[in-house]
TrEMBL record:
Transmembrane segments: none annotated. Residues 22-33 have a biased composition (Low complexity). Residues 184-256 form the DUF2470 domain. This is Pyridoxamine 5'-phosphate oxidase. It comes from Mycobacterium saskatchewanense. Residues 29-172 form the CREG-like beta-barrel domain.
Length: 271
């Protein structure tokens, strides 16, 4: 994953380095992040090109057919005419806001070319769109509306400040949404409310910060937990991985309990 330095304003707090190597740093790839964000929404900003070559942004709804965005566009709309004239397009999809700063939200751009569904794809594309946008049953069969598929050629994922990476269309097609995502917010809140001591123990034993005073879980995915740790040396961020990637949200409770037990039994204080 590429991490970009946006510069040092001079007064930003420094993050203390780990005192030990973290036991696991596995994270979802940019392609997996993109598939997860796309699967969690049904609205995006579509960028198309006018006949004069000018960029044109439009709010659209979409469904997903094996990760491929399905659009239902009217030829009466400007972006509908744009797509008919030039198939190059991109979708910008923003994850649900979790704070006051919109630029701290995760988001993706899916770029490629639109095509009409083949005869083999048509029924599945129609079903995918209706599943994501049930109200489309009132207009989907109007003569001016048509279905389009965005064949993704390039993906850009931004996870907030300083976290970003790219993926190819092939990588995006081969990835899958994180099965933990629908339960992640609830699980994060539960861990922070009821298991703060266990999170601190995980940071000490597995996160590389044996001097952790307290720890807060800032995110969970199929590969592990993101922790914000408070130490006498300052505040840092670390990763605690699961022994193996989870395949279902049903595994979350047992997986985090195993981490807590392992942390309690394996951690020894530094000299």
């Amino acid at each position: 994953m590429v991490i970009r330095d946006h510069g040092d304003p001079g007064d930003a707090p420094s993050a203390p380095p780990p005192l030990r190597p973290p036991s696991s740093g596995a994270r979802p790839s940019a392609a997996e992040q993109a598939r997860t964000i796309a699967a969690a929404a049904n609205a995006a900003t579509l960028a198309s090109l006018t006949a004069e070559g000018d960029p044109w942004a439009s709010l659209v709804a979409y469904g997903l057919l094996d990760g491929t965005a399905v659009l239902c566009v009217s030829s009466l709309a400007e972006h509908g005419r744009n797509l008919a004239g030039d198939p190059r397009a991109s979708l910008s999809i923003v994850a649900a806001a979790t704070g006051a700063d919109p630029l701290a939200c995760s988001r993706i751009t899916l770029a490629g070319k639109v095509v009409r569904p083949s005869d083999i794809e048509l029924d599945a594309a129609r079903a995918a769109y209706l599943s994501a946008v049930p109200a489309a049953r009132f207009y989907l069969d109007f003569s001016d509306f048509s279905l389009w598929l965005l064949r993704v050629e390039r993906v850009r994922w931004v996870g907030g400040y300083g976290r970003m990476d790219s993926a190819s269309g092939e990588q995006y097609a081969g990835a899958a949404p994180d099965p933990i995502a629908p339960a992640a917010a609830r699980a994060t809140a539960h861990l922070n409310a009821d298991h703060a001591d266990a999170l601190a123990a995980m940071a000490r034993a597995f996160g590389g910060y044996p001097d952790t005073d307290t720890a807060v879980c800032s995110g969970i995915d199929r590969y592990g937990l993101d922790l914000r740790v408070h130490t006498p040396r300052g505040v840092a961020y670390t990763r605690v991985g699961f022994p193996a990637p989870l395949v279902s949200a049903d595994q979350l409770r047992s997986a985090t309990a195993d981490l807590a037990r392992g942390a309690a039994s394996s951690w020894t204080p530094t000299a």
